[in-house]
Each structure stands twice: as C-alpha cells, then as structure tokens.
Amino acid sequence: MNRLVDELASLPGIGEKSAGRLADHLIRLPRERVQRLTDAITDARENVHFCSKCYTLTDTEICPVCSNDTRDHGTIMIVEDTRDMQAYEKTGKYSGVYHVLQGAISPMLGIGPNDIRLKELMTRLQNEEVSEVIIATNSSLEGETTAMYISKLIKPTGIKVTRIASGVPVGGDLENIDEITLLRALDGRVEL
Amino acid sequence: MNRLVDELASLPGIGEKSAGRLADHLIRLPRERVQRLTDAITDARENVHFCSKCYTLTDTEICPVCSNDTRDHGTIMIVEDTRDMQAYEKTGKYSGVYHVLQGAISPMLGIGPNDIRLKELMTRLQNEEVSEVIIATNSSLEGETTAMYISKLIKPTGIKVTRIASGVPVGGDLENIDEITLLRALDGRVEL
C-alpha cells in the first residue's frame, strides 16, 4: 500500500493526501476495473508515439490529420505541443496540417533549437510542396523566441511565413487588459 | 439615518448591508473629514465634464491630452470610455490623441449611432488635419459593431482607418484560449 501511495504521489498534481485517497479508492475497486485501468496505462505507454510526419502524439503510425487527404497539406501550422494542436482542431475551421515542435526554445531551461523538432520541420519543407508556414507557438517569451528563430530559418527558402495575431482577446474590455497586450494590439493594428 | 442608508444603497455595487456599515462609519467620522468628502463629491459633480474636443471626462475645459502640443494631433484613437483611454495612457507609449465615444452602439440596449459621440467625431475629422483614425473599441459584440459602423462612416473621407489587433494576449498559452480568439488570431496572421 505504501508503495502504491508513493508511486501515485510521484505523479504531477497529486499530493501525498490525494495519493492516499486514490490508493484507498483503487484497492476497493472490482478486480476487472483495475485491470481495465492498468491495461489502458500500459497500452498508452506502448502504443502512443510521435506521428512520423508532424510529431504529434498518436497511436497510429501517421496521425489522423496527416493521413487525411482532404486537408490542405501545403499549409503547415507550427505549434509547441499536441494540446495546442487540439485547441485549433476543436475550432473545426483550420484545414491545413500541423508540425508539433514538442517544446519551445528556452535558453533559461537550457532547451536549444536541437532539442525540439526543428530539423524534422526543415526536412519536411524540403521534401513537401509547402506554400505557407503559420507559426502558432504560444505568446510567451519562449514561444516568441521560437517564432523568431523559425522565421529566420525558413525565410531563405522563400516559403511564406506568417505568425498568428497577438492582441486583445475576443470579448476583452480594454480597461482590463495588460499594457503589453495593449501595445501589441496597437502595433499590430490592421487597416480596415 | 435611514435616509442615508437608502441613499448609499442606491449606489452601484453597494448593497443594503454595506450601506448600513458605511453609514455607521460616516456618522462617527470627525466633522471636517465628512465635509472634505461631501465637498469632493460636490466639486466633482460640478466641475467634471466632457472635454470639448475629445469628450473624455476632465475638470478642465480641454483635457490635458488634447491641450498637449507635443502629442500627435493627426492620429486619433477612438475608445468607448475614459477608462479605456486611461488604459492606453498608462502604457505611456501612445503619442496621438483620443476621441471618447462615451458608449458603444448596442441594438440590444437600444443605443444607436446618435447616442454616442459620433457626430462630434465627424466634425473633428472635417475641421482637423487627421492622417489616421485608430479604432480601439472593445473586442465585444458592441465594440465590433461600433468599429464596423465607424469604419464605413470614415472610409469615404479617404482618411486611413485602422483597428487594433485582436488575437492571443501576451503570455497566452494556446490550449487555454477560447476558440473564437484562436480563429481571430489565425485570420489576422501577419507575414514575418
């Protein structure tokens, strides 16, 4: 029992107390439900891997987006991780494909360009017919650094490079918005 | 005492209970502090009015921004209210002037184009040398409606009309951002 509590408590977001409660719950479950849980964990661990094209997490060799012929394979959106890709997938309005960096450049954390899937991106751009690369890394310091780096890398290839807009979020009231976002919104203003 | 409680309770954000507490506090204050408070209220009511140029709230005939000659009077930023103007003033980086609509068009609330300071804006555009109008109404339904309306109104004059950018706020992680903002950010992407 102590071993189980320790194992659970080592997971992110689970403290000593919740680990105890979880363990208590688990040992009372019917045997087959516990089996289903451990199978799901093992299966995921065994079968989920990076898509060999876009590097998102998937349980098929090529992810459903990359293997969908109705999508526009000439437009690649670059995101930091699979959750960001899922956020755009949920909108249901983006018809291109993705490239998932699985991270962002962070000098502070010692994550350099070689630690994210950038080489793989450049290989794709060489081998595929790509007309536009949309950089959709987060609007954080790391995301912006990564965006700048990628843009400089791609520019010489002549492929169009765009960055998703930074500004006032939809529904936002100016008086409640931070100054940096206000200045970005001003700098990024578009002609009507 | 009851009259005071009723008066206080009629103010926005003050309920019956807080009104009671406030009244209790007020009657225990030294006479001169009460006088200072009532004077401040009366003064504000008597002396604060709309700037005769930009319609922000001010206690001078022309507000400090409009009367500042070092600012760029050829660039006018349109905002809904004085608090939005103050938000941009706090950034310290905007050097143009403002036009405060004192509201936004809202068919739902029955607020039409004639209920906000639009006629006054058009008069300014006729009489002043303006090279750019930056529409910085909120990113709400009303703010967007107002922005569209103003842009159509100004277009025929040939004056450049821009809209502050809508998109991912600075520091934002895509996975936590609403779908509409994600789509706006995608639509508003800029070439790097």
Structural features, described:
Chain A is built from seven helices and seven strands. By secondary structure, the first copy, chain A, is of the alpha/beta class. The first copy, chain A, has a four-stranded parallel β-sheet. Chain A is globular, with a radius of gyration of 21 Å. The N and C termini of chain A lie far apart (65 Å). The mean pLDDT of chain A is 91. Chains A and B meet through helix 4, strand 6, helix 7 and strand 7 of A and helix 4, strand 6, helix 7 and strand 7 of B. Strand 6 of chain A pairs antiparallel with strand 7 of chain B.
Q: What is this structure, in a nutshell?
A:
2 copies of one chain form a homodimer. The first copy, chain A, is α/β, with parallel strands linked by helices. Chain A has helices at 2-9, 16-26, 31-47, 82-91, 118-127, 141-154, 179-187; strands spanning 49-50, 57-58, 72-79, 96-100, 132-135, 160-163, 190-191.
